[in-house]
Amino acid sequence: MRRELRAEWTKARTAPGTAWLLSAVVVLTAAASAAVAATVSCTAGGCDQDVPRLGLAGIQAGQAAVAIMAVFAVTGEYGSGMIATTFAAMPRRGRVLAAKAAVLTGLTLAAGTVAVLASVLAARLILPGNGFTAANGHPPPSLADGPTLGAAAGTVLYLALIALLSLGAATALRDSATAAGVVCGVLYVLPLIPHMLADPGWRRLLWQATPANAGLAIQTTTHLDDLPLGPWEGLGVTAAWAAAALLGAWLLVRTRDVRA
Amino acid sequence: MTDPSTVMTDPTTGGRDGFPHLVRAEWTKFRTVRGWVAGMTLAVVLVVALGLLSAAGSHASCGMGGVETACTLTTGPGGEAVSDRFFFVHRRLDGDGSITVRVDSMTGQIRLPDTVPGVRRVVAGVVPWAKAGIMVKDGVREGASYAAVMVTARHGVRMQHDFTEDVAGRSGGVSPGSPRWLRLTRSGGTLTGYESVDGRRWTVVGTARPAHLPAAVEAGMFVASPGDLTVSRGDLGGASVQVRFTEATAVFDQVRVEGRAGGTWSHDDVGVAYEADGRTPHHPGRFTESGGAFAITGVGDVAPSVDGMRIESTLSGLVAGLVAVIVVAVLFVSAEHRRGLFRTTLLAAPRRGRAFAAKAVVVGAVAFAAGLAAALTVPLGARVLRANGNAVLPVSTFTELRVVAGVAALTAAVAVLALACGALVRRGAAAVAAVAGLVVVPHILATASVLPPEVVRWLLRLTPAAGFAVQQSVPEYAQVLGYYSPQGGYYPLPPLAGLAVLCGYAALAAVLAAVRIRKGDA
């Protein structure tokens, strides 16, 4: 396993896109969070905003960069045909996939931590200017506050799970554009489906089952009773999706021919 | 043996690669790749299936005296849904004439959200759009043509007619110390509204030509008070809008009708709703008269109504379809780069800008056709919704066509944008993510109410997602207080302006891609 990890780490380190994508995760997340913080306002009359969730809203943009990083981690080799060489050098394909997943998780956790810290910092700097003060009952986010810390840490974990989900999907699909389309669909279109249904039971069920809706419940710190499921349970749903995607990818990689 | 060059070139263009020829070549490529055709078909199926599924699952019925019936909407002379509920004290007016009144005061009450469940909390006050004034109307039927000049609680004097038309006069309300004089004069089909502070010097507020005004009309005083609106958090991050009872009372005196006025003053509570027994009016209006002064209390509004489903509500699956379109459009160019086929394409058509233009034409045309097929959900879905008893806001045929053609144009523009990004970035996944991030994501953040409305409005002005405005079928009315949020389907830009923003992005990306292809390496 060390051999595979070393090989995948070397690939990730030396591929030209990795540094760009890691900085894209940080910049997109922080910039989008800052943009959201700059456009909301809270009056003395009060506002009904979940401040940690506002401060971390940039994750909606950042998760796309994470997904692309995961897609490139595997489809690059399929596109160029290098995957045949990889599997010739390391015939235990399950281990290759595990090593890719481990390296990707490490990179995502690192970039995600920086991105989340930058978002919280931006929110701390910008929100007080828009009326989010302790006097209005909405102090700017602080990591010393338990629920906020939970939301921030959970968001980093969410990003890692999205990376794994995307890696699994890309390994199964092998084509980068198709994989990116499917992952975008899962991240951005699937969350809409519950809102299209009239039946409240189905709405709730589908909301609970979509990885982006359920997973981002981790950012919620107020009105927790309105949520169809708890924050950590929600993250569990995303984890189940990631596990299912990786399992499917593992089965396909083991049984299928190397190239399409 | 034929000379191979005759296969590649068209003699009518003097041996150069004719553009129609290139388009045909690209079209042949497109239709022979099974995955791309399947992708476009999937896009159409996704939109239609999701739309019809949501329409089929949406049922409604309206109670009418204990009997469940389909929900119906009152329509105005222009065919749009209207709210026509007010208290009207009127008399017949034949031919030309005028009516003059002095409005002395306006008071009212507003019901606030209950703090103790079940206990009504009513306070004194008037809502900003509470109206009191004079009106000339084609009878007392709901939705009939009218023209009116009125004073409102917070929006000054207004001249309105046929529900949708609204002209502002001088600002300021009425109070016992400062009354307001109003006059409405009919001359043929034209009505002119005047206002005055002293009854001597008059200023014109506006003129109106209502759609159907017969020779004999009802002229008189009216009072209306639209419901108060509160927006609160709904489930799953949505917003729930609550409308609560309000009423307004205005005192009129110095009433003078000139012209052939017939009969005595009669009164109607136009558009009043009834309790479950079908006889007792629900929140009735009333009036008293003493010594030529009328105190009239009214409930409701005389204005366009935005209370109902919209024809484009069945297009919620459009974003899903667009993701499929984006993937296909990106693959249409990135697949050639990956397999080195683009070098062959350029050998066959050395004028590189034209080769790219041909691709754009083909993918744009295919996406337009797919968008048109997908947009047929709109008329079909509206039919299903109405059959299920839902009140769907009626729109003109022109608006419906604009929505359908607009969705097709939107799909085409997104496809061209995706193609251009694919040619610029050359890495399929990056191009798909970039275009989805520019087009689909802002719109989803807007409709799923993940972000606050102010942020969403800016996103829908500045990003290519502005193009989704083309599907809005019901405009925002300045004279109706409503929850005009992107979640509710109200876009910050007008339909065609939004589409123009998207087309601008697509054109810019196409130009950059053409430059890159001409200058860069294949």
Automatic annotation (TrEMBL), chain A:
* Protein origin, superkingdom: Bacteria
Q: Where is the signal peptide?
A: 1-37
Q: Which UniProt keywords apply?
A: Membrane, Signal, Transmembrane, Transmembrane helix
TM segment ranges: 61-89, 101-127, 147-170, 177-197, 234-253
Q: What is this protein called?
A: ABC-2 type transport system permease protein
TrEMBL record, chain B:
Tell me which species this is from: Microbispora rosea
Protein name stated in the entry: ABC-2 family transporter protein
Quote the Gene3D superfamilies the UniProt record gives. Answer: 2.60.120.200
Q: Does the keyword Membrane apply?
A: yes
Q: Per the record's keyword annotation, is Chloroplast included, yes or no?
A: no
Q: Which residues cross the membrane?
A: 36-56, 315-335, 356-381, 401-425, 432-451, 496-515
Keywords per UniProt = Membrane, Transmembrane, Transmembrane helix
